[in-house]
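Quick review question:
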């Protein structure tokens, strides 16, 4: 990053153009948003780096598993950059007060004169063991889980976490891609005292009313809040989102049973899917196909198609792309969806893993 790579960023990113190489490097590494821009540029325009990100044979490297000329894989190099940026950020945010600690008092002038004349020996001063700073403690706890470029924008949201929470979450941190979810997990009381998992890390069965085949509207609303799924309703007020959650919680038990397995019994994916379905289909169509008895055939067909799609990471943006594409083509009004896919290339790309030409399940 410090060498020729930063020069590419200096050439392509306006804010870095007039900065010397060391200053440009510090600007990127100190600012997660700027580092994210750099990673996005690298991923989207690899041709810009074909002469500087190379293997030992001077061939361009774009795959994470490929070995660079330095002997590390590209994935390892990315992880090192992410960790270095996180370490800088944690130091800046968590160790601020330590810079203003009161210095150790010096001996008086008289004592220094006596020592200088050799009239007495200097007292033995025991140095207190150096304590680990807050930033270093958090960094050491997180280090093994800082691996991917998508984590860069989450660095500011890792900062409020405690090492104990990081240790408790462990590798599950790598399945959390949303700032709102990190904030929810770091909130006081997020980890139940009765030994249960935090709500966002539990199975989708947690959404069910005890002993009944229906969703618990209160639990569903809590998940929606912690995932900040109000983002799916950009112009809606809180009350409108709550009413939508209440209508979604009226899903028929048969529809729930069909969808739970294909969504991995994952509380976040299930909640995201039904919310995306509600906003994609509209209230009336959602009620018709998800909330009424005798309509399980449509949901079953939808579940079959979901089962053939690779599950997206738990990122709202990616889930919207995949689930939205499945829903938009599946509910094309009972017609063949080939024309829909031709008219909307982004849907075809999102559904590549389905294989063949998907058919409408409605009508």
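Suggested answer, residue by residue:
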């Amino acid at each position: 990053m410090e060498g020729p790579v930063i020069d590419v960023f200096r050439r392509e990113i306006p804010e870095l153009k007039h900065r010397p190489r060391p200053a440009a490097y510090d600007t990127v590494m100190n600012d997660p948003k700027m580092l994210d821009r750099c990673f996005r540029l690298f991923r989207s325009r690899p041709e810009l780096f074909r002469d500087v990100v190379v293997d030992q044979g001077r061939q361009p490297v774009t795959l994470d598993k490929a070995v660079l000329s330095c002997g590390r894989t590209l994935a390892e190099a990315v992880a090192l950059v992410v960790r270095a940026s996180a370490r800088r950020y944690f130091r800046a945010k968590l160790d601020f007060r330590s810079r203003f600690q009161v210095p150790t008092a010096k001996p008086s002038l008289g004592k220094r004169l006596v020592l200088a004349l050799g009239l007495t020996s200097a007292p033995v001063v025991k140095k207190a063991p150096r304590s680990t700073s807050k930033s270093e403690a958090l960094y050491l706890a997180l280090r093994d889980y800082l691996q991917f470029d998508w984590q860069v924008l989450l660095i500011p949201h890792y900062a409020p976490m405690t090492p104990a929470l990081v240790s408790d979450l462990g590798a599950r941190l790598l399945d959390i891609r949303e700032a709102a979810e990190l904030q929810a997990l770091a909130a006081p009381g997020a980890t139940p005292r009765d030994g249960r998992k935090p709500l966002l890390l539990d199975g989708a069965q947690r959404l069910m009313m005890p002993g009944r085949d229906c969703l618990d509207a209160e639990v569903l609303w809590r998940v929606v809040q912690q995932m900040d799924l109000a983002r799916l309703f950009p112009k809606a007020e809180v009350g409108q989102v709550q009413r939508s959650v209440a209508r979604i919680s009226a899903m028929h038990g048969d529809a729930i049973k069909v969808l739970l397995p294909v969504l991995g019994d994952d509380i976040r994916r299930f909640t995201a899917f039904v919310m995306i379905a509600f906003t994609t289909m509209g209230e009336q169509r959602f009620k018709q196909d998800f909330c009424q008895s005798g309509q399980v055939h449509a949901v079953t067909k939808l579940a079959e198609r979901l089962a053939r799609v690779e599950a997206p990471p738990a990122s709202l943006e990616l889930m919207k792309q995949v689930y939205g594409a499945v829903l938009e083509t599946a509910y094309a009004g009972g017609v063949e969806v080939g024309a829909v896919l031709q008219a909307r290339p982004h849907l075809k790309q999102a559904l590549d893993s389905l294989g063949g030409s998907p058919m409408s399940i409605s009508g």
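Why it works: Residues 332-341, 353-363 have pLDDT under 50 and may be disordered. Residues 199-354 form one domain.
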